[in-house]
Specification:
With 209 residues, this protein is mainly alpha-helical. The chain is built from 11 helices and no strands.
């Protein structure tokens, strides 16, 4: 009961912080970032809307979250053979801020669930968690519509490729990805099955801000 109470408190804090999300100060120059993003377009698309489901959509993603991820790739707190080298090739930290500003200002294209048979289960997990396993509702941190929380650097998940979301949950579960605040994603994903990850990812891709 104590653990579930703590999960409920975490959910309340997460939802409350959305009130201040729109007040997040812009930290980069989007126009400069657009010019700097040409090398990113091959994977993420010219406007940040990737077409390959293995590569994330960056359009509309929180600026502070994008900065964190790029910086983590640059300092090896997050590792990926391709992204680590790409991030380290960015000339300056200011360029990182500008690239993040560009993608944050781009309009995200909506996604559509492909396996609609598991969307209902995904919605239940996203909105209510998995009580018996001690998994908190995803909406507590990522918002009721999946728009994320820029202030807390929690990412936008609505419209994201389901295949990419599942892959990240599995990386958190294995510990290969470990740049989450307070081990929140690692702790939650360890309690989820692959089927549950697939269900919630299918639901998230169809969410609309």
């Amino acid at each position: 009961m104590k653990k579930l109470a703590m999960l409920a408190l975490t959910a309340t804090i997460g939802l409350t912080s959305f009130a201040n999300a729109s007040e997040t100060k812009k930290i980069g120059d989007a126009e400069k970032g657009k010019a700097l993003s040409t090398s990113c377009a091959a994977c993420h698309g010219a406007d940040g809307n990737s077409t390959n489901p293995e590569w994330p959509k960056l359009a509309g993603q929180g600026e502070s979250y994008l900065v964190k991820q790029l910086m983590n790739y640059r300092n090896d707190k997050r590792k990926n053979a391709v992204m680590s080298s790409m991030a380290k090739a960015i000339e300056s930290d200011q360029d990182v801020l500008d690239i993040a500003a560009f993608y944050a200002s781009s309009k995200a294209k909506p996604g559509t669930a492909k396996n609609k048979e598991i969307v209902a289960e995904g919605e239940s997990i996203y909105r209510g968690g998995i009580v018996e396993a001690g998994v908190a509702a995803c909406s507590a941190c990522h918002g009721p519509t999946g728009s994320g929380n820029p202030t807390a650097k929690f990412p936008k998940v609505s419209g994201q490729h389901a295949k990419y979301s599942v892959a990240q949950l599995q990386l958190f579960k294995s510990g290969e990805r470990n740049n989450d605040t307070g081990k929140m994603m690692r702790n939650m994903s360890k309690k989820m099955s692959t089927a549950q990850m697939e269900a919630v990812s299918e639901y998230m891709t169809g969410l609309r801000d």
